[in-house]
Write a structure and sequence with these properties.
The complex is a heterodimer of chains A (about 160) and B (about 290). Chain A is an alpha+beta fold and about 160 residues long. Chain A has helices spanning about 30-35, 90-100, 110-120, 130-135, 145-155, and strands spanning about 10-15, 20-25, 55-60, 60-65, 80. Chain B is an alpha+beta fold and about 290 residues long. In chain B, a hairpin with a 2-residue loop joins β8 and β9 (about 165). Classes of the chains: A alpha+beta (about 160), B alpha+beta (about 290).
Amino acid sequence: MNAPRDATIDLQLTVNGHEAKARVEARLSLCDLLRDSLHLTGTHAGCEHGVCGACTVLLDGQPVRACITLAAACDGRAVTTVEGLSGPLVDRLRAAFHAEHALQCGYCTPGMLVSAVDLLERKPGAEEDEIRRDMSGNLCRCTGYVGIVRAIRSCAQG
Amino acid sequence: MKPAPFSYERAASLEEAVAALAVAGDEDVRVIAGGQSLGPMLNLRMVRPTRLVDIHRIEALRAIDVLADGGVRIGACVTHAMLEDLPSGDRFPPGLAEVLRHVAGGIAYRAIRCRGTIGGSLAHADPAADWPSTLAALGATIELAGPSGRRSVPAGAFCLGLFETAIEPGEIVSAVVLPGSGIRRWGHRKHCRKAGEFAHAMAVCIERDGERLEVWLGSTGGAPVAIALDRAALAAIGGSEAQQRAGVREYIAAALPDAISPGDAYARHLHAQVAAEAVNDTLANRT
């Protein structure tokens, strides 16, 4: 293998409303860009192959796995991490996660919150079975699913 | 869990992407679109390309067009989420949007569906992927663009085996074209041990007026497999609803091709069961 070692790319993107510039290796993931270059360590790297959901962030408003999204692919786009989530729905989710004991170690929580915000924005009246199915891409190894589902359901309408 | 180094270029057009795929020396060049299959393989270093050509920003590949003959052309970089969210009241042939919405919405998780593309899923040809069997049953054709121009391959002949397709070196999947004839009834079922996990068995059944029932199995470990069902024999299965469903299951278990998981009674049972559910959903219009 004669892989080029100088494969760097200059990026400009918006992260949580702020302009960010970085010179990155082509192989760098969005997750590592956020954590190591921009010091936004709320986004957690779990499985690093798209299974666990801990690294879920919003890219142009849509949830994506930051571990299997290349930083280079995000040039010119807008990223929202757990640090940048805001608004009435997010306030209610934060309070509900607290009230329902929806976290133990907290490792999965950033991804859970990002996925939950996306879920409730698309399906404001989601019932429990729908919440369980739609949140199935976020793993909690403390097995706190009952509290997580209850917290999200309490923020759904109806 | 980090990829080996590679260089990266983003193509602005299909022509640029095809030109970028021209390989020099010992280069290993891969196309990346959503990267939801290639990404994990890069991180696990199951693949170590020297260069990636990113096609996900090519606008022409993100279009969904209704054609003059009533067919539908879906660009290769249309995401599963875009198909999951197809608006109602479109000009699609009857039934087609429902099938696409259902199948797309069942692929992995929303965060994967927002990046993963229909063309990437086909090109990757994972036996557990949903599109290879579904598009074969829908009678789709796959458009390929390469250095010597464009060509089309029927979806049923596109996947050749495990991660193996009809794509020639230097070619890119550019679109999927679906026929304009309406779908009367359909069924799609899969068996996953966990919601969103890779399926262990998958079946799709498409019924169109005056045509044979298209029943295709996915998750076979290789290319999708069609099963030939006699509509008259199916229609002759009588009795109560439960007896009819059981009759269909028996008929399909007997019709399951020998090539499906030979010697593995459990896997064959799963495939037959899932196929029977898809056919029963179709016949009962329970979809």
